[in-house]
Design the sequence.
């Protein structure tokens, strides 16, 4: 019963950000480890025909309102990014470089990137911003900067994107528990009960 | 504070069906009337470019699983219809004919249509099935059958579809409280708090 909850998220996804604030309490309540898996939702959209939420007629306007309202509802600090969406590829590579070279820092880095983008109005497309975030966490920013161009790191991100598609992931956040998929912050209540009961 | 909750739904929408089971308790808790507003989601999709959920790659398979799981989670009897989606136009016209001619029967008719489609595996495209449902509720099925071709009834449904678009409705179920929009069964928790607090 200790298989990790798979937590797929895109660094440019507002609901993924909310999920990052809420999933740890659910996992802890059931003694489950959590596998953080940043991926590139845009790469998945190329295969599924999905589109960025905020670009859709009517739904886009609703979504922007819903993100702000939902963050406040859940008590999560949130400020809609001035430049949105961000390209999430560099932050993803930073995460997977850390996972290989300074693993205890990977999750703190992910949280700091999310906070920078969705609360501090910083531009996470910029390598300099990611370097500042790294430095603030006592990560070797220079080594990480070089690591962003590492072919192994690029291949790892490519593999996670492929794995996400294979697992049926089409949005962010997306949680999988022993093969059972839960899409969205909206499904954390069902995920919580699923972990408690083993399903229904 | 007694402005009704606007409840837009499509008779062919599984999540609309779940919403119809859950919204009454929320409205009652806050002493709010509820305005049932069946509309044609397909007509809205023609304007917004929306697509039926179950037809989308990956998302469609997930949605079918999520509908069954969500119904059980909420304790709502559910059986995926053998022929899906249904055309909802006739059921909508029946509802609006009742609203004009036998108003106390309109909501019971809506509930019976939903139950017929999402639990009893009946084909709500068929006028004969709607007539049986009407008869079971002591509605004059013959008068309602004639009313389905009534120009006033057709115009009323057309007007509700237009009103829905104007109000930003792009999915089902969709709830509006004094201009504040809530899309989906997933937002009933926020709607509940909104009614309690007047917003945040």
Sequence:
């Amino acid at each position: 019963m200790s298989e990790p909850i798979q937590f797929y998220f895109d660094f440019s996804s507002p609901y993924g950000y909310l999920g990052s604030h809420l999933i740890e309490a659910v996992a802890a309540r059931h003694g489950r480890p959590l596998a953080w898996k940043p991926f590139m939702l845009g790469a998945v959209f190329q295969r599924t025909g999905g589109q960025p939420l905020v670009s859709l007629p009517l739904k886009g306007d609703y979504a922007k309102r819903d993100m702000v309202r939902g963050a406040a509802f859940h008590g999560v600090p949130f400020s809609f990014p001035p430049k949105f969406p961000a390209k999430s590829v560099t932050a993803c590579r930073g995460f997977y470089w850390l996972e290989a070279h300074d693993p205890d820092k990977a999750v703190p880095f992910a949280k700091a990137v999310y906070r920078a983008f969705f609360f501090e109005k910083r531009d996470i497309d910029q390598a300099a911003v990611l370097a500042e975030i790294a430095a603030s966490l006592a990560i070797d920013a220079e080594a990480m900067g070089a690591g962003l161009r590492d072919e192994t790191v690029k291949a790892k991100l490519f593999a996670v994107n492929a794995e996400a598609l294979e697992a049926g992931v089409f949005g962010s956040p997306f949680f999988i528990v022993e093969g059972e998929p839960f899409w969205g912050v909206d499904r954390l209540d069902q995920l919580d009960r699923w972990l408690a009961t083993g399903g229904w």
